[in-house]
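For the sake of clarity, the format in which proteins appear in this thesis is described at this point. The record quoted next illustrates the convention:

___
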Amino acid sequence: MKRIAVVMATAGGAGYSPFAPGTAGSVVGVMLYFLTASWPLLWQAALIAAVSLVGIWAGGVAAQHFGRKDPGQVVIDEVAGQLVTFFATGISYHGLIPGFLIFRLLDIVKPWPARQFESLPGGTGIMADDLMVGVYGNLLLRIGMVVLPAAWQ
């Protein structure tokens, strides 16, 4: 089970990227959103919930495996956060790059209370900060869609 957890926590190995593993995990999230964007919202919400719950379990197991509280190789949190960023926005493929960049910037900055969520125990702390950043990213995408609607069509 540990091997399965590590594979899931690293988003199929994306977390082993030698350069910016968090960015590689976000790319996996963008690709997953692109593949599921036409799903009904309930299914998309279920996907986010499933990735998040698996991430809590797998992230906790992987943290023990790597011997660190929030190892860089664990990127399932970026996958989930990226999915939250795009959830129910209905953006076209034109919005994927801005949404990706918004999420990455917020994930680096971690505005309040996202950074504080990192202190939660185990896999919960690994996942919670990126899910909160995803909520912020979703709100910023929605503002962008109102301010510059033609850019998102």
In short: The chain has one domain: 2-152. The mean pLDDT is 92. The two ends are 43 Å apart (CA to CA).
